[in-house]
Amino acid sequence: MCDCPKVHLYEVEYKLEGMIVVPTHKNCGASLNSKQADKLQKDLIKSWGFEDEDEDKD
How far apart (Å, rounded) are the C-alpha atoms in residues 24 and 2? Predict the structure, then answer.
């Protein structure tokens, strides 16, 4: 797991681990932890212009 304090959207690449695509940090090469993966997902949704489903429920 990646322990880097800040992971930006442009520092992430995707690798195959078996039959699963895993987001990994380009600088350290480790897979993202769950907190970083959640932040990445929110950043992707925001950058693509989609509405976040979690915010709609509030």
Answer: 8
Cα→Cα distances 32→9, 54, 56, Å? 12, 21, 26
pTM of the model: 0.71
Gap between the Cα atoms of 2 and 51, Å rounded: 28
What is the token pair recorded at 46? 């925001």
What count of other Cβ atoms lies within 10 Å of the Cβ of residue 45? 15
Question: What contacts 55, CB < 8 A, 6 or more positions away?
Answer: none
Query: What is the rounded distance in angstroms from the CA atom of residue 47 to the CA atom of residue 27?
Result: 22
Confidence of residue 57 (pLDDT cuts 50, 70, 90): low
